[in-house]
Amino acid sequence: MTSPQPKRYRLLIGSDAAGADHKRQLADDLRRDPRVSSLVDVSSANELADDVSYSHVGIAAGLTIARGEADRAILICGTGIGMAISANKVPGVRATVAHDSFSVERSILSNNCQVLTLGQRVIGVELARRLAKEWLDYEFDPSSHSAANIEILTSFEGEDAGWDGEAVPQGSIDAGGVEPHPDAHAAGLL
Description:
By secondary structure, the chain is of the alpha/beta class. It contains seven helices and five strands. β1 (9-15), α1 and β2 form a beta-alpha-beta unit.
């Protein structure tokens, strides 16, 4: 009996100047990884230029994933935060910063993240290599308990992007003596 073939990913990689060194090392690793069917660099042709914005790289990766042209992306900037925020601006994309093995695991198993972001100024290259390798080992189970949470996010991003407040019981948020924002009432949180 043969063992099942591992899932193969159409992967994106990208960085700004602050993440270029880690990106090059990770790209070398990923090109040799049998789980990667293709690797496309979404960075600018001149990634070392100071005017290359993590925002452009993160949005480009997010759009490529949202269009179904790639499965996942690994993006590197100084902290990983800017890349995650940028990719998360694209509807349907879930990006996370993760600098430890447990967070990498949960990014897929609990949150079905398609984008992993790393900070070159936060972790060394060997840890970045390890986390990228581990991240490719995980696959989201659509029958898991977490699927309901993902469905809430997906529904929120729908055509009207409206939220009926059903996910949070009435009165569940205590403003702690601070006057709540009017939108909290409109969303049914208070």
